């Protein structure tokens, strides 16, 4: 299966970078707030609830900050990200799209590298990057 793999110094992978918590978040129909409109109600990425908090409170919450500033120690040991020497470069340049990770490896493996990463495990799903 052909899969695009980036290089360690690529600031952005083909298909764009992920801007979660940089300048946007998303309100779901029930008032829950999430990192990305494609993550829906994935419990790992719900930041708050507009029925209980203001948007400013959610945006500035410890939960939002923890997800945005997620370090290597928060990844499971079986994720290549835990030992990666370019982890901070990837985090700073938003080189990890959670939606692509979940589509490639499943919800339980949300902490795996972006499938376009040269250190990412092979995938069985046919993800097309043009």
Secondary structure: elements and pairs:
Blueprint: E1 26-27, E2 32-34, E3 46-49, H1 55-59, H2 62-68, H3 87-92, H4 98-105
Antiparallel strand pairs: 1-2, 2-3
Protein described:
This protein has helices at 55-59, 62-68, 87-92, 98-105, and strands spanning 26-27, 32-34, 46-49. Helices cover 20% and strands 7% of the residues. A three-stranded antiparallel sheet has the order 1-2-3, with no helix packed on it. A hairpin with a 4-residue loop joins strand 1 and strand 2 (32-34). The radius of gyration is 15 Å and the shape is globular. It has four helices and three strands; from the N terminus they run βββαααα. It has 130 residues and is of the alpha+beta class. The model has no long low-confidence stretch (mean pLDDT 85).
H/I helix tally: 4
Sheet-strand content, in percent, reads: 5-15%
**Strand numbers in spatial order across the main sheet:** 1-2-3
Shape: globular
Mean pLDDT: 85
Would you list the SSEs in sequence order as H and E? Answer: EEEHHHH
Helical residue percent?
10-25%
- Mind describing the biggest β-sheet? 3 strands, antiparallel
Instruction: Kindly report how far apart the N and C termini lie.
Output: 14 Å
The structural class is alpha+beta
Global Rg: 15 Å
Uncertain stretches? none
What's the β-strand tally?
Answer: 3
Question: What's this, in brief?
Answer:
With 130 residues, the protein is of the alpha+beta class. The protein has helices at 55-59, 62-68, 87-92, 98-105; strands spanning 26-27, 32-34, 46-49. It has four helices and three strands; from the N terminus they run βββαααα.
């Amino acid at each position: 299966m052909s899969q695009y793999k980036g290089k360690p110094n690529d600031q952005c992978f083909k298909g764009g970078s992920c801007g979660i918590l940089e300048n946007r978040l998303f309100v779901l129909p029930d008032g829950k707030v999430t990192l990305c409109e494609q993550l829906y109600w994935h419990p790992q990425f719900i930041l708050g609830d507009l029925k209980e908090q203001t948007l400013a409170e959610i945006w500035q919450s410890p939960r939002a900050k923890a997800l945005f500033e997620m370090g290597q120690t928060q990844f499971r040991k079986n994720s290549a990200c835990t030992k990666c020497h370019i982890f901070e470069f990837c985090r700073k340049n938003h080189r990890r799209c959670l939606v692509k990770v979940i589509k490639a490896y499943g919800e339980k493996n949300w902490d795996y590298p972006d499938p376009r990463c040269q250190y990412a495990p092979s995938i069985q799903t046919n993800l097309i990057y043009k």
